[in-house]
Amino acid sequence: MPPDKRKLMHRRTIESYGYLRDDGLWDIEATMQDIKPYDVNREFDGTLVPEGSPFHDITVCLTVDDTFLIKEVSVSMDSFPFPSCGGAAPSFEALKGTRIKAGWSRWIKQTFSGKVGCTHVLELLPVVATTAFQTMWQPLGKKYPQHVPATLTKLVNSCHGWSEDGPMVRKLVEEQVLHLPSKESQ
After folding, report:
1. How many whole angstroms separate alpha carbon 29 and alpha carbon 60?
2. What is the pLDDT of residue 181?
3. Which terminus of the chain has a lower count of CB atoms within 10 Å, N or C?
4. Overall pTM > 0.85
């Protein structure tokens, strides 16, 4: 049965990219745009955001090293609904010197909650983290093959695809790339 007729009222796009820089560092970038298919009058000052123009246009770029240590932080807010929104961008400099790892997303939510942060930047940071992993995984596996088994072990049971009973983990165990602890030792 076809869905009822519907009319587009909002479009959010999130794009993310991972780059290897000439200096060996990695730039991981994510952009969010919110666009309305109609004119929007901003309530705070009555200015017009024309149909098809971004209501939100926010970009986060983290520069990381091979260990996922954040070396540089850039948050740009080219469009936002309230005059004070852009004031949140400098707060995210506190990410410099932290490492993307287990628990990092929880830490950023705690650290940048409330009036020091920006909801939309906080939505982009986990996207940046997963994009970093997807970008860096294969090149780092080739550069540091001795770390691959330990990294893979951390992925076991992290999701359905990495279930210890699933075909991917079984294949890696059979190929002796991954060694799971025996059931008796658990």
Report:
1. 6
2. 78
3. N
4. yes
